[in-house]
Amino acid sequence: ITMTGWLSFFAFLLHALCTPEDEGIGPHFSCAVRDKSNPFGHVFGKVPYELWLSVIPGILIGSLVGPAVNAAVGPRNIMIVFVIFLLFDAGYNIYNLSDNGYFAELLGLAESKI
């Protein structure tokens, strides 16, 4: 977990410091190899600060409340609720894909639109 945290922090810094000039704030350092496809040496893809800042409160509250909920409910019951949620989500997504004709198109059963 510690290694993942450090690598994520390094990737965050790389994207925060090396964004192209047209992608927002930052010192816009040249951190990548310069070549024909990347003449200025920028790292593509800026840090989505709005999204990043919107999830921090949930992470903080979850890390503070999570151990108490785990102790009160029990890890096995939490896993059961998580599996139920995953099965519901998978069923919901499969239903939406089949309703949109994705599986029929994937299997070649869709009507031709010519």
Unreliable runs: none
| Count of beta strands | 0
Q: In terms of structural class, how would the helical and strand content be classed?
A: mainly alpha
Strand content: under 5%
N-to-C series of helices and strands: HHHH
Main pleated-sheet profile = none
What's the pLDDT, averaged over the residues? 78
Task: Summarize the structure in words.
The protein has 114 residues and is mainly alpha-helical. Helix content is 62%, strand content 0%. It has helices at 2-17, 49-73, 75-99, 102-106. The protein is flat and about 50 Å long.
Short description:
By secondary structure, the protein is an all-alpha fold.
Salient structural properties:
single chain; 114 residues; mainly alpha; 4 helices
What is the fold's blueprint, element by element?
Blueprint: H1 2-17, H2 49-73, H3 75-99, H4 102-106
